[in-house]
Structures are given as structure tokens and as C-alpha cells.
User: Fold these one by one.
Assistant:
Number 1:
Amino acid sequence: VQLVESGGGLVQPGGSLRLSCAASGFTFSSYNMKWFRQAPGKGRELVANITCSGDITNYADSVNGRFTISRDNAKTTVYLQMNSLKPADTAVYYCQVLISVGAYWGRGTSVTVSS
């Protein structure tokens, strides 16, 4: 199982970024996917999740209405569109999949929201 995040960077408050997580090594279309984030000095927080077919999504209250999770099963990629970014969104963002009894994580992509 391999998960590779990309798309992070430095953005001004109010700006947008689109994160991608390219997955391989498992049957991507059979598994729900999640995005987490970890801000400096804080624990890892669940940001959003999406079912295997993409028909159901859920969001943390802190990002609801600003972030959108989506997936392309043909490309085995999950996305996180982030709009109206705030300094509080500064964190390393990780994608995750649960397979059997194991949780698999990517190495993360860093997002910094600052003027």
C-alpha cells in the first residue's frame, strides 16, 4: 500500500489549494478514504472522509462548507479542495486508508496559510 500526497504550499488567507493523494497497492475503489491534518504542536485531526463510491462525504465542523473531498476511482486518487483558507488551517495534511486491521498513511503535504 502506498499513499502519496501532493499539492500543499504557502497560500494567503482566503486563498485555495487542491490536495491530491495518489494511491496504489490495493483495490482503491473498494475502500473509504480519509484526510487528516496535524497542526504544529497538536494531535492529528480527521478533516474529511469519503465512501468507496464517493456518494457519502463527511467533514469536521471546522472545515464544513469550505473543504470538499472527492475521488476518482479510475485514477486511484482522492482530492481535498480547500477554499477560504484560514491561518488555523495551517498543518500537514495526510490521507489514510483502513485495510483489514491496518491503517495506512502517506507522508503528508504541508499547508501554510499566512500573509
Note: The chain is about 0% helix and 55% strand.
Number 2:
Amino acid sequence: VQLVESGGGLVQPGGSLRLSCAASGFTFSTYFMSWYRQVPGKERELVARISSGGGNTNYVDSVKGRFTISRDNDKKMVYLQMNSLKAEDTAVYYCHAAFYRDYWGQGTQVTVSS
């Protein structure tokens, strides 16, 4: 099983980034997929979740209206489009899969700074 994130980097406040997560080794289309983030010294925080079919999404209040989670079950990919980024969005972002078991990616760093 692998979840491989990409797309992180350094961006100025107000900018955008698109994170991608490539999944393999499990039945992707049956799993809820989520993005979490974590900063040093704090607990990992759920940012966004999407249902197995993609019809339902949930977001933490702090990113509503700015972030969009989506998935492509044919390509076994999940995405997080992040717009209007703020300094407080700086964190390591993790891809997560949950159903019978749960799996984590290795994380990708997002830094929002001028």
C-alpha cells in the first residue's frame, strides 16, 4: 500500500497550491480519503474529507471556501486545491485513506510566507 503526496512548496500569502495524492495497493474507490495537516507541537488536524464516490465532502471551518478536495477513482488520485493561502496554513499535509484499515502518506510541506 502506498499513498504518495506531491505538490507542496513555498507560496506567498494569497497564493494557491494543488496537492496530489497517488494511491496504490488497495481498493481506492471504496475508501474515504482525507487530507490532514500538522505543525510541530500540535496534533494532526483533519482538513478535508471526501466520500468514496466523491459525492460528499467535509472541511474544517478554517479552510471552508478556500480549499477544495476532489478525487479521481479511475486514476486513484485525490487532490486538495488550496486558494487564498494564509500563513496559518503552513504545515505538513498528509493524505489519509480509511475504510477497513487506514493508511497514511509520508506528507508534503506547505509553507506560506512572503
Note: DSSP finds no helices and eleven strands in the chain.
Number 3:
Amino acid sequence: QVQLAESGGGSVQAGGSVRLSCAASGFTFSSTAMFWVRQAPGKGLEWVSTISAAGRFTEYADPVKGRFIISQDNAENTLNLRMDSLTPEDTALYYCATDRRGTNRGQGTQVTVST
């Protein structure tokens, strides 16, 4: 079955950077579009970024455009998210998912950005 395991979150000061990773298994990773979604305290799931199957195309939500970079390592079945210039508004539980709505997602990794 599909398994997704996020890692790399933590606490960082505003302006800092964090790199998230997601280990994927149970499906053909290189043939699957992958997504990052997040959930801020008291809010619903928010789509963050998409990478197409085989990583040819990427897409970002407006709040993170120019600051986040999504990538994948097909040899390691790993999805990554490089997050720069973080602000407190980026504080959230971050999930990797196999769909844009985050219906099929991992357990998440917490990112907390302080001023």
C-alpha cells in the first residue's frame, strides 16, 4: 500500500530555511505526480506545491512562490521541499501527498517559524 513519511521539520527563526523530505513506497514513484500540502493551526489543508510525474514540471501556491522549491529523487523515491525566507505565516504541519487535496498523505512534519 502507499506509504509516505515526512521528515525534516523543526523550529526556525523568520528568514531562515528548512528542507523537508518525504520517503515514498508502495507505488511507482517516478510515474506519479506528487504534492506538498500544509495545515496551519486552526485552518484547513492548503495546497503548497506540485511536481509532475518524472519531475518535468513544478507549480507553487502564490504565498510560497519564489521561496520554496520542490524536487524529487527517483533513485531514492524521495520528495523534497526546500523552504527559504520563512515567515511566521509558514508555520504549519507539512504533508506530502499523492493528490492535490491531500486526501492520501503521510503523518506530516511540523515547521514552526518564530519572529
Note: The two ends are 40 Å apart (CA to CA).
